[in-house]
Amino acid sequence: MTQRSKKPGITARKNTALKKSIKVPRDEIPPFHIMDKKDLEKELSRIETEFGMTPEEFHKAWREGKVHGHEAMKLNYYYKFYKDEYE
Amino acid sequence: MRVRDRATEIKGIFYTHCREIIDGSPAFKINESKNQKNCGAVSEKMKLIDGSLINFFEIIVDGNIHEYSYEYVRHDTGFFFHYQNEGIDEGIKKPLNHLHVGIKKVADKKLLDILPDELIEHGGPHYMAPEMKFNDFMGMIIVNYFDNHKNRNRMMKALGLL
Asked: What CA–CA distance (Å, rounded) separates A40 from B31?
């Protein structure tokens, strides 16, 4: 039976603790890109072109197991993140 | 651990250990929740020197890797393997940690025409898999596609796999 939580990304399973960080050289490494509201909106706009659905339809399709894959997983997360953080 | 600490860790794997096989300088995208401490996501699409691609995505919850998606795609054939935990556990039908293997839908049409549906992107089973660590995933790529690279052993050692 599928187990999902209302909290984004939360499921009933044991968490995997992160191990100790690896040392990273400071030079030659570009800074992180911290995604803001506009970045998320840009990502969400891809749903229409890549899956031919509105974000709401896409989220429903994800929950019903009708869309799959790396991009679908990522876009569904962005959808939930946007709702949680900006609405 | 904070989301950006995990992103730093992943960047470390690439820039410290696997720099020789990366094409370009991936920056890594981060989402950090303002409402929940140590929750967010890290993502990046990385091109390797032979043209193949790594799609990386992790969801961090309370400082732990809660869900992940590690996909490797060969540009020349469309072959891919994809280890994933989407936070969905449907038992044997769709194990929490699972693997997809097959050919991408964007591959050569003549090839797609002769392949059975289950070999085409996400048409096959969700193969039960161990919980995948990113180090192991990178190691699999190195031994299978960069086995003759001059720094092969150094990369494997740095990843803790030799």
From this structure: 9
